[in-house]
Amino acid sequence: LDSSDVEKVIQLARVYGFNPAFEGGEAETFVVDAPLFRYRVDVRGMRRKLAPYHIVYEIREARLVPKD
Questions:
Q1: What dihedral do alpha carbons 14, 29, 1, 62 form, nearest 10°?
Q2: What is the extent of the structural domain holding 57?
Q3: Nearest to 46 by CA among 56, 54, 58, 55
Q4: Are 42 and 62 contacting, i.e. CB atoms less than 8 angstroms apart?
Q5: 42 and 9 in one domain?
Q6: For the chain, counts of helices (H) and of strands (E)
Q7: Would you give the distance in Å from CA 53 to the centre of its chain?
Q8: Distances, alpha carbon 11 to alpha carbons 7, 31, 38, in Å
Q9: Where are the alpha helices (DSSP H) in the chain?
Q10: 4-17 pLDDT per residue, tens
Q11: pLDDT in tens, 19-37
């Protein structure tokens, strides 16, 4: 994320009423495909284990892919 992405998240948080720091569960789950989506999200990243019960998937790249 760069500073313009952060500003976009803050603006969206104001509009939709979520915590821009993602406290409260907004970012613990990321849906990449669902029947109502026109596109699926192709995510590339790296899984990092920070502690025995603390694993983070760091998204490095994401793109929209048309469904077949």
A1: -120
A2: 31-68
A3: 58
A4: yes
A5: no
A6: 1, 2
A7: 20
A8: 6, 21, 24
A9: 3-16
A10: 889 999 999 999 88
A11: 888 777 667 777 899 999 9
